[in-house]
Amino acid sequence: MNVKPGPLATIPRTVTVRTAALAAALVTVAAGLGVRAAAGGDAAGGDVAKYAGDALYTVLIHTLVVLLAPRVRPLTAAGVALAFSWAVELAQLTGVPADLARHSTVARLVLGSTFNAPDLLWYAVGAALAWAVHRGLRSRPARARS
Fold first, then answer.
1. How many CB atoms lie within 10 A of CB 66?
2. CA–CA separation, 17 and 65 (whole Å)
3. pLDDT digits over 123-146, tens only?
């Protein structure tokens, strides 16, 4: 029997992966804003929002890596995201990010300003979560993806 491929089969895989990565990035940003809004001014909620935000920061970096390199393996993307997150956190020990943050809202959002050792753990949690989702999506059979 001769079966014609469906309309999704004609879309290059890299386009599909990039589209999914962009959607994941937007969902991650929305989740970060949602967690922050839900926490309100409560001190305990503030800690939850902060550490959830740390994990989501690394998830966002992971999705951006996939957006730029759609054929990247999940472990590589997670490793790059974790290394970047840790590098930014460790750079805060120098005071340079704090200085840049005083002059730019974007620098404050991307680089932070104050080193906090527990952040390193939460970045690893985010990288592990992103790796698990990415791996799960990649390991699905091609038929299930269409």
1. 26
2. 11
3. 999 999 999 999 998 876 655 444
